Amino acid sequence: MRMVDLIEKKRDGGVLTKEEIEFIIQEYTADRIPDYQMSAFLMTVFYQDMTDEEITALTLAMADSGEQIDLSSINGIKVDKHSTGGVGDTTTLVLAPLVASVGVPVAKMSGRGLGYTGGTLDKLEAIPGFKIELSDQAFIEEVNKNKVAVIGQSGDLAPADKKLYALRDVTATVDSIPLIASSIMSKKIAAGADAIVLDVTTGEGAFMKNLADARRLSHMMVRIGALAKRRTMAVISDMSQPLGAAIGNGLEVIEAIETLQGKGPEDLLEMCYVLGSQMVVLGGKADTLKEARSLLEEAISSGRAFATFKQMVENQGGDASICTSPERLLTASFEVELPAKSSGVVARLIANEVGIAAMMLGAGRKTKEDAIDYGVGLRLHKKVGDSVEKGESLVTIYSNTEHIKEVKELLYKNIVIEEAAVEPPLVHEVITE
Ligand code: URA
Ligand code: CA
């Protein structure tokens, strides 16, 4: 087989066989196909799309390109959850201990943030001492003991995806639905869970800017999951405005603690109940979503979910005293309010732009090499649909510099106050197949 012939075949609208796709992934991972040919191939996929069979073959070849984690020594049905990314998306910090506290083992590998999207690993590292690197053995022991561990992706998990993602990033081929679906599902399949709950975000703060694309991506990933014999379902959630109130790493840890104590923002808690109920049903701990939800509600009101979080922090080397004194994470030198310039109702709170404002403060990375400042970020006091009086604070800005003129301007521009507003739904659709 020659790569140039396969590029040409795809360019002209042909359908690649499983063997051809396996050849491309194996040879590229082994550095026997150069980046320039792979770049051309990615662009043909971007324009010509792929059939379900091609995407499944691509996903499985990528999953097979490195280590596949064997979680069979963990008792019970292991359920993984993956979000396609967002702004202020604090769900994993709440959901992992919450679901574990009702008996579903959660062996979760998370990622870092890039650009305006946050990453669970960065948030966990805001907790002093918290270790996100565990050996496979220690990871499995943690989950057997405490039902939950959240760690970074092991180095050799889907190496084809790591190489491809870096190439896509610089060849304008990130936002291709077959490439996103195979990228996400290859990692989930290699990470070894029995069942997968996908949180597919849509809106300004997400990869999928519109509902039709989010729907197509969801269906595709659910189908790939089924073909790989993993029970998979997707929740299409709204990311037109940030989730919850906190954006920024330490601030989101505080928000997660408050939510696990039953005093967090309503939208974040509801999102955790929606995703968590699906996980509990897939994990075999409840027969219906209603039953699953009441288990989760009880876990929060009894303090069990919070206790599981505290235990997870301790087990992974973190300073568990932040659970009782979360205000210790508020280390920024300046707390500045942003007063509303007029009265009315918040009509839009544009997620990606608000995420960029947090990134400018140091809460996120512009490039992979940037360091994160865990103490900075934003706490929103108003969400879409809330009424506001002129002069009332819209946001508290946590900053380590006094020079935040540009951040303020960006926030003013993207928190739009009008006479009336239409509140977006939290969940657009639930897709099972
Ligand atoms: N997240 C991934 O892991 N891969 C993509 O391609 C997009 C989002
Ligand atoms: Ca949040």
TrEMBL record:
Transmembrane segments: none annotated. The keyword Cell membrane does not apply. One of its GO terms (cellular component) is cytosol. GO terms for molecular function: 1,4-alpha-oligoglucan phosphorylase activity; thymidine phosphorylase activity. InterPro entries: Glycosyl_Trfase_fam3 (IPR000312), Glycosyl_Trfase_fam3_N_dom (IPR017459), Glycosyl_Trfase_fam3_N_dom_sf (IPR036320), Nuc_phospho_transferase (IPR035902), PYNP-like_C_sf (IPR036566), PYNP_C (IPR013102), Pyrmidine_PPas_bac/euk (IPR018090), Pyrmidine_PPase_CS (IPR017872). It is an enzyme of class 2 (transferase). Gene3D superfamilies: Nucleoside phosphorylase/phosphoribosyltransferase catalytic domain, Pyrimidine nucleoside phosphorylase-like, C-terminal domain, Transferase, Pyrimidine Nucleoside Phosphorylase, Chain C. Keywords: Glycosyltransferase, Transferase. It comes from the Bacteria. The keyword Amino-acid biosynthesis does not apply. NCBIfam families: PRK05820.1, PRK06078.1, Y_phosphoryl. Belongs to the thymidine/pyrimidine-nucleoside phosphorylase family. This is Pyrimidine-nucleoside phosphorylase. It comes from Tetragenococcus osmophilus. The gene is pyn.
